Amino acid sequence: MTAPTTHPETFRRAVDSLDGLPTRAEIELRTMRPPQRLAPYSAAWSAEVLASAPAPGTGEVDDAEVVVTGRLVLLHDPEGQDAWDGTLRVVTFVRAELDPEHAGDPMLPEVAWSWLTGALEDSGAAWTALGGTVTQTASVRFGDISGPTHATDLELRASWTPTEEVLSAHGEAFAGVLAIAAGLPPVGVTTLGARRAGRSG
């Protein structure tokens, strides 16, 4: 995604820094149509985390399972907005299906929120006015539909105001939350068995 040259320099610099964000092989980022009414300028990316990384040289995973989905939205209002305390706003959404044994953990919302705050701190991002929600939703499937009969999803919604125009660290934090939610091991570490999304350990 490249912001048109008619857009403000602040917005174009922020978009460029996110658009070129390198991610680990299991995470796929794609540009998507951004919301139109939240700010004069906006950009958005969708994210999917695969259970397995693509085989080297192929770019494809046989029967790849998407274990986490997400969205990253960048908003810019040159005049600023009172709730933002700035002219840029990063909005994120992450959804992961939980293992049954973790679905009833009363501490899970606090743990999930710490994924975000920890990722922001670890990435070195500079930010203010952070807020959001963590929600657990339960669903029951009926009839001819694939998937388990009972499922519980964790949804993390958050937004914050970056205090810098180059947002690479903020994108890294978003990718970090996706990886944690998917239970991916640290880069360079392999495990004997894949962890399912939503583990809080």
Automatic annotation (TrEMBL):
Pfam families: DUF3000. InterPro entries: DUF3000 (IPR021555). This is DUF3000 domain-containing protein.
